[in-house]
Amino acid sequence: MILLTNDDGIRAPGLRALYESIKEVDEVCVVAPETEMSAVGHAITLSDPLRVKEIMKNGGFFGYAVSGTPADCVKIALKAILRKKPDMVLSGINQGANVGTNVIYSGTVSAATEGTILGIPSIAISLDSFVDTDFSAAAAFAKRLVSQIRKRAFPKGTLLNVNVPSVPADQIQGVEIVPQGKSRVVETFDKRVDPRQHTYYWQAGEMVIMEEDEGTDCWALRHKKISITPIHFDLTDYGNMDLIRGWEIGA
Amino acid sequence: MILLTNDDGIRAPGLRALYESIKEVDEVCVVAPETEMSAVGHAITLSDPLRVKEIMKNGGFFGYAVSGTPADCVKIALKAILRKKPDMVLSGINQGANVGTNVIYSGTVSAATEGTILGIPSIAISLDSFVDTDFSAAAAFAKRLVSQIRKRAFPKGTLLNVNVPSVPADQIQGVEIVPQGKSRVVETFDKRVDPRQHTYYWQAGEMVIMEEDEGTDCWALRHKKISITPIHFDLTDYGNMDLIRGWEIGA
């Protein structure tokens, strides 16, 4: 059984496209946020209670909506909702790419990270477009990837972060296994004044491509290739440990 | 000038202790969440406006409270609030350790990560206790670390995740530069029924020490040592890239 989740919310078309594609080849269950949870990063909900609702679609049961984050959804699915442990977690299909430094803000990736922590092969999948609603190429690739994973030894402690270019399936220029790039959204704050004369700010920004991004996830998407990046959650920068050992900070 | 922030909120005693200690040696500014933001991970606020309030303490200006996450605070401090770019970011002193797998949920660490992304030497500092309110040893160590960093080349793309054991300063058994461990909170969901007969869940859990944690951040704290872990935000699992290249997933 494959657990499907996302960060765009249980009613998002990307999740529906993933559901329709994967249920052709496997048993699926959906546990996803009740509302959009973009850019929540790896947040979990500790100070509020979580509620779970059954969601119907086309007259049948579709899945469980949780009043929490993507990471909450994976945790509560395994620990409180599902009777049987899923053997794969698929998170997506996200509306918008999750590449470069921006991966750290991604709720889509955080759900797959949570699956990995809980010992389940996990995949995050995103479509590189905020406007395109044709998820068919990404959904078809997800199905192919699931079939391949069923035949392979999935690496422990790792998830796959998959990004699909927003072009018709026959224009995709291949699949690349690439590292996370350094491109990122450079943020701006739009300062405004509300009708009560109080100041507030909207956070915005745009993706800035860094030159050193040759051969990365960002580069692959720009060249109409599907990118796959294995991601782990050991954040240690091993290369800099000795440098800091040389500092005079002994207690 | 050093930017101080945290995830326990601008009124937290750990932030106050850090402020009192660091202002003895450097110019400081405080931009911190208005309310507690624990376990928000690397969330940023895109769908709501951010508001900024000036906070007074003991009759003087203390800092800016932001209606957002720790990562929001660092971004808005640099892009909209402060007239001068800080040359260091200190996040803490958090109430509770940020070690092992749990680092991925940490708002304290996410603020330091944001400083690093913006090119500023950044440190997250946490006290290994949810009840102890004596932040003096941690505050003194932060001051010593800041002085040392002023004399050293700080590694690019890296932050320091510092955890201080909850013992008096003279009982601390040294400082260790160690990798992030694998210990983590194993969650449970406490199912309850509200007065309207609706089900809800509280997410809880307890830290489980994994055997392979010898020589890690978790191990250092258990041995009354201060742990320092250099952390980066390239999440790529380079060791598993070739394995996946062997799969039959070419488009």
Low-confidence spans of chain A: pLDDT under 50, at least 5 residues? none
User: What is the CA-atom radius of gyration of chain A, in angstroms?
Assistant: 19 Å
Query: Care to count the β-strands of chain A?
Result: 11
Most extensive contact: A-B, 80 and 79 residues
CATH structural class of chain A: Alpha Beta
Oligomer: homodimer
Q: Residue share in helices of chain A?
A: 10-25%
Q: What do we call the CATH homologous superfamily of chain A? A: Survival protein SurE-like phosphatase/nucleotidase
Q: What separation lies between the terminal Cα atoms of chain A? A: 52 Å
Portion in beta strands of chain A? 25-35%
Please give the domain count of chain A: 1
Approximate shape of chain A: globular
What does this protein structure show overall?
2 copies of one chain form a homodimer. By secondary structure, chain A is α/β, with parallel strands linked by helices. Chain A has a 9-stranded mixed β-sheet with strand order 3-4-2-1-5-6-7-11-8, sandwiched between helices. Chain A has a two-stranded antiparallel sheet with strand order 9-10. The model of chain A has no long low-confidence stretch (mean pLDDT 94). In chain A, helix 1 (13-22) packs across helix 4 (136-151) and helix 2 packs parallel to helix 3. Chain A has a single domain, classed as Stationary-phase Survival Protein Sure Homolog, Chain: A (3-Layer(aba) Sandwich). The radius of gyration of chain A is 19 Å and the shape is globular. Chain A contains 6 helices and 11 strands. Chains A and B meet through helix 2, helix 3, helix 4, strand 9 and strand 10 of A and helix 2, helix 3, helix 4, strand 9 and strand 10 of B.
